[in-house]
Every structure is written in structure tokens, then in C-alpha cells.
Write a structure and sequence with these properties.
Elements lengths: L5 H6 L6 H6 L8 E3 L5 E3 L1 H7 L6 E7 L9 H14 L4 E5 L4 H5 L7 E2 L2 E4 L1 H5 L5 H21 L6 E6 L3 E3 L9 E3 L10 E3 L1 E3 L4 H8 L3 H10 L1 E5 L4 E3 L6 H7 L7 E5 L4 E4 L14 H10 L2 E5 L4 H16 L5 E6 L1 H7 L12 H20 L4 E6 L6 H13 L3 E5 L1 H4 L5 H13 L14 H13 L3 E4 L1 H12 L7 E4 L19 E10 L4 E6 L18 E3 L4 E3 L3
Parallel strand pairs: 3-16, 3-17, 4-15, 4-16, 8-11, 17-18, 18-19, 20-22, 21-23
Antiparallel strand pairs: 1-2, 2-14, 5-6, 6-14, 7-12, 9-10, 12-13, 14-15, 22-23, 24-25
Helix pairs in contact: 4-17, 7-8, 7-10, 9-10, 13-14, 14-15
Length: 559
Amino acid sequence: MGVKSDIEIAQEAKLLPIKEVAAKVGIAEEELELYGKYKAKLSDEVEERLNKQPDGRLILVTAINPTPAGEGKTTISIGLTEGLNKIGVKAIAALREPSLGPCFGIKGGAAGGGYAQVVPMEDLNLHFTGDFHAITSANNLLAAMLDNHLNHGNALRIDTKRVVWKRCLDMNDRALRNIVIGMGAKTDGIVREDHFIITVASEIMAILCLADNMSDLKKRLGRIIAAYNMDGEPVTADDLKATGSMAVLLKDAIKPNMIQTLENTPVLVHGGPFANIAHGCNSVRATKLALKMADYAITEAGFGADLGAEKFLDIKCRMAGLKPDAVVIVATVKALKYNGGVAKADLGKPDMEALKRGIVNLDKHIENMHKFGVPVVVTLNSFITDTEEENEFIRMHCEELGCEFALSQVWAKGGEGGIELAKKVIATVENKKSNFAPIYKNETGLKEKIEIIAREIYGADGVTFDAAAKKSLEQIESMGYGNVPVCMAKTQYSLSDNPLLLGRPKGFTINVREAQINAGAGFVVALTGKIMTMPGLPKVPAAEAIDYNEEEQKIVGLF
């Protein structure tokens, strides 16, 4: 019999009712808002009750620059959580919700893999508890109210050439990137250029993930800049009187979700911004709750450490007052060989020379995390195509750098395969003090912040700014937003802004073509290279293989 697919493993799982899972971390049934048998939202009362509990240890799981297939941060996060529980340490994971875009596009599902998964995986990968639909609706309500305001006389004197709020959809649909709306009769609205972004790039996704509570959420929503008027002044969601209605649509979405692992351990899954075009971290509320519920809270940040981890440390931790105790960097033999120049189709073949060329990518990520003052553990996510020689080379390389190393076999063995990593994480936390500090100060200028990230984290020689980006950054600072952090939008495949420059490129510059203020979220987005905020589907999308088997009444082909 061949290797079982993730969905086959998930469908064979013995799930416990979510109220029994929640009881393991002291959550009573009346504190849950049930979404069927196996999903629940945590009521506000949980947060209030746990508020005075001491915090556990915070462990961030990040990775090297990935292959286009992704390298298993979620799998490792779940396996590490299970490994800790296996050795008697109370641990809980706080993860992001998957987007439908990659699910039907190129990467497949995002519920972990093999025997280190969260379940029900089909629900999580599809509509889950409706959070993304709520975010999409709130985003598009603001867009609709703006266009309605234009149609009914434009009392705010909005400049239709300077509408910056985009509609969104949780799907890869390149045809919607640049569109014209208001065509038809006079009653069909004002004709203007418009754009769509994917829901996970929406500022409302970032706001939901960074908001402390409903009051904070409403303040952030009200600050959203939707357009500029004829005098160049910002027009906000408050100005358009959209804040209250948007908040109503998000009243349930702001509550963290709880599901379970294959081994029936509770997991919080909440929020899902991409890290290549947004800040790439789950919600602050879920992370803080996890810290109150367990001795160890395991969380992840999207894509490589140059994107997700940098934003976790410079944006999320700064805003939420979080201090990570250690960082786990996930590497795979495949990704290291990919960074050594091996084509995706040949990554399963042994190639020590490519591995030696590509390991410099890991070196840079280790250096970067040390720059933030946080201890590092490297883990190798094991694949059946890996050889003993390849594994030993990576282990010795990490040890020479003074870095803890663990082989993770969580895909094949679940929590049992995560015990080695769990022990290394505990040893690191107990023996090495975290002296965490962000890489730049709030008062540093916006251009300088971008230059610090480019030089220190990417290894660039410098940054070039297009005229439009320069002008935007100057305007943002003149509006009083010079002290906010920067969220870099960049390709995930390279440390540079060119996806073809693999390994540890040198002698390159980063080009910032555009900058915009997300006043509600509280950061500036700097777009580099050719990064798109609305991805497209590949030539053969994953959607072609997904189906519903009516005889067996189950979903097939979902990763």
C-alpha cells in the first residue's frame, strides 16, 4: 500500500468532541461557542478569566526560504506541540487559518501534514467558522459605502483618482487585479478604475489579528484611510460612517477558534495574513490566550524568516508587548538543495554539492534571528527521500555554528517524532536567555527602517526608491505616521526581491516601487519587486484534483 495522503490520514482520525478537548486546558463548555461537534470559538469570558494567569514560554516557528511547495512550518509547529505534551510539558499551538487561494492554487491545504495535522482539516481549509468571509464582507462594505457616497453627491469631495481602498476576495483571481467599475447607466455608479486584493492581504485581516478587543478593533477600523479628498487630506472609514457596520460583521470573527490535533490536543487557529504581502502572523488574541493556557505556546510566522519572523518580531511583538523565548528555524533537505540551484522536479535526488551550496541560506537566517537577541534551534523536517549523509552534514553544520539541531520526524510519527525537537527547545529555553529587541526603533525614519531591514535581514547593499514610493513615504511621515513599523511585501523565494536569486545572494539592491499607510493596522506597507497583492492560479491549479465523493460522502484531492 502506498503512502497515505494528508486528507486520508485526517479522515481516519478519531476526533473528540471539542468540549472534551477544551477541558484539557481548563476551558468549560459554557465558555465555548460551538460550531458543530469539533469546532468552537472562545468567548470573551475566557480571556477575562485567564487574564491574571502567568504567561508560559513563547516559541516562534519560522523557516528558511522555501521551495514553491512550502516546507512544513505548520507540520513542525503541531509536531513540536505534540512532542512537548508527550514528555509531560503542557503545550498548545496558536496558528493561522488557511486561505482558499493556495488551497485551490499551488500549495494545497495548510493544516499541517502526515501525522502532525489539525482536524477537521477539510473544515479548516475551506469555510471553517466563516472568519475570512466576515473579513471579506467588512472590507467590501467599506468599498460599497465609498462608491455609494460618490454616487450621492460626494459631500466629502473624494478625489476618484485617489481612492486607495481595494475590494477583496479570498481566491487567486488575476483578472480582478485591475478593473473598471460603474459602467452602464448613471444609476450604476461613478465610472472609475478599481482593484481587488486577496482577503489575506486586506488591512482588515491585519487589524483583526492585531486588535486586543472589540473596542480596539473599532478604533483601528475607524482609522482606515479609504481615499484622499481634493485637498490631499485622508478620508477614513469613520468619515464614511462605515465603522460600526464593519465591526458588527466582525463581532464573531474577532473571537479565537479552537480545534484539535490528530492526537486530540487543543489548538487555537485564528487569522491568516500572508507573510509575503502582509504581516504573516496569527492573531494577538490567540497567541496571548495560548500563553495563559499552557507552559509553552508554539506559534508560526509565514514563509521564510526574512518575511514572517521579521514581521512577527518587528510588528506583532512590538505592538502586543510579546517576547519570544526561542525561535525554531525549519529547514528541509529539498529547500536547501533548491537554494543550491536544483530544479523543483529533481529535489528528491541526492545531491551533496547542491546541499553545500544551498546551506548558506540557512546560515543567513540563523544570523538574522540572533540579531534580534533570540536563541535559535534548527530542525530538519524529514522526508523519505532524504539520505543519512545529507542529514548528518546539516547537523554538523549547525553544531559548528553553535546552534542546537534536531531531526523532526513528525510527518511520519506525529508527537513521537517531535520529542527530539521538544527536548532541544526546552534545553535552549532553560540554558539560553532571550534578549529580544526589535531590529529598529519606532522613531527611526520610514526610509531608514526599510534600509535597515534590507541591509540587515536580506543582506542587500542598499535600497532604491521609485519616485512614487519616495513621495508616498514623505506624505505618510507628514501625516504623522513616521513612527509606525514597516511591513515589507517581497517574494518569499529569495532573500532579495528577485525570486531567481537563491541561496545567499550578494551585490543586490532592493527596489521599493510603492508604499502605503495602513493606518488602522498601524504599519506602512512597502511593495518591492514584482510582488502581487492578488495572486493568480498556476497553469494546473490544485482545484482540478479536488472533488466530492457522493457515495462515500467525503471530500477527495484536498492535499
